[in-house]
Amino acid sequence: MDISPAHNQSLEDLARENVLHPFTSPKGLLETGPTVMLEGKGARLTDAKGKVYLDGLAGLWCVNAGYGRIEIAEAIFEQAKKLPYYHQFSAMGTEPGIYTADKVKRLAPGRMARVLFGCSGSDANDTQVKIAWYYNNLKGRPQKKKILARNRAYHGVTVAAGSLTGLAYVHDAFDLPVLPVIRLTCPHYYHEQQPGESEDAFCDRLVEELKTTIEREGAETIAAFIAEPVMGAGGVVFPPKGYFEKVSKVLKDNDILFIADEVICGFGRLGTPFGADYFGFEPDMISVAKGITSGYQPLSAVLVGEEVWETIRDASAHLGVFGHGYTYTAHPIACAAANANLDIMEREKLFDNAAETGAYLQEKLRQRFAGDPHVGEIRGAGMIAAVELSADPATRKTFDPSKGVGKAVAAEAMSRGLIVRPMMNDALAMSPPLIITRADVDEMVD
Ligand code: PLP
């Protein structure tokens, strides 16, 4: 057997012949080939052709501490030498997983009681659905199964998480959703407002929709509501003021669990530890991934609040084991990376930089693009933003989606050395590493 690299072929050709790329046109890739990144340092990447980019998206919203962190690399190396793997099944454990659980719980909002690790945001949200069902079954309410989720939400792509996601391209031709998901309106005032409706009135309408949906379906059939504090992949959508406060109250009144999908917002993206801190609400359960390791290792976690934890703990008297978890739950190398990453965030006060330099980013984007005849909305806070292009800002008219205007602008930005991500409605998303400086922001906006 010979599996040594075919040196007579370029990286691009090897990729074209062998790789099925996520969220990429398979046929398109055959023509263009991928851009292959070789190195990263700080907020900058270098591709295989030597071109340097300012990474305005922190990989996929995840490299919060920036590239080239030797401290994280060394923690990974040391752990790999000492103990590369052991599991957490049947009351076993390793040092890094225990420390990470403690650190994450102390950072988290609300009253979180226990942490269960996974490998991706998608598996975290699958776990959330199972725990919401488990909890209600244990409480003698097996009919409480439906999940409330919002249009344009992104919760991942596995069978359960993909069902929660409210974007057609994740469902189309995959036979999703398969879960009993009840969809709610996307809380994007810019696109969803009715003529003459104020932002407050829009918020009240969304809350009313939630109430009438619960009445129609029956609170006794609904297990949970899941929401990203700021929707990421759906287009960087901030809800109207007061939304989460009002939604939380309705959920509490109806005994419906609130799952906060903090996969993007968690670990400083908004200049606060979590999105729930930014908006001031207390979820019952939280999903995290991405920023927990700044992408240096795959790791996710589900945090369960006290009420859910106590029910799970008490039921074990008759159920025995909690029958869920992965081979790689609390993988020691991933958790070692998380611990080193969280130490950096604390020591370098990266959440504060996200707030301060983030405020500068927001201001610069508005200075530069407000009133531009092709810009409809500029939105964001901290280190997450979107500039949405528009065919006619006065009427909020979008471009014909088949024209791919956002994609073309993002491709042009990339050719000039800036990575931004084109999203639906031709919004250009930005979510840079939390370490960026004012000079980086100036370069990005220019
Ligand atoms: N939840 C949110 C809010 C996300 O943004 C993502 C990924 O972008 C996921 C879940 C899924 O995470 P993963 O791609 O690690 O499965």
UniProtKB/TrEMBL annotation:
Keyword terms: Aminotransferase, Pyridoxal phosphate, Transferase
GO MF annotations, alphabetized: pyridoxal phosphate binding; transaminase activity
InterPro entries documented for this protein: Aminotrans_3, Aminotrans_3_PPA_site, PyrdxlP-dep_Trfase, PyrdxlP-dep_Trfase_major, PyrdxlP-dep_Trfase_small
One Pfam family per UniProt: Aminotran_3
Coiled coil: none
Known cofactor(s): pyridoxal 5'-phosphate
Family indicated by similarity: Belongs to the class-III pyridoxal-phosphate-dependent aminotransferase family.
Matches recorded under PANTHER family: AMINOTRANSFERASE (PTHR43094), AMINOTRANSFERASE CLASS-III (PTHR43094:SF1)
Protein name as annotated: L-2,4-diaminobutyrate transaminase
UniProt source species: Acuticoccus sediminis
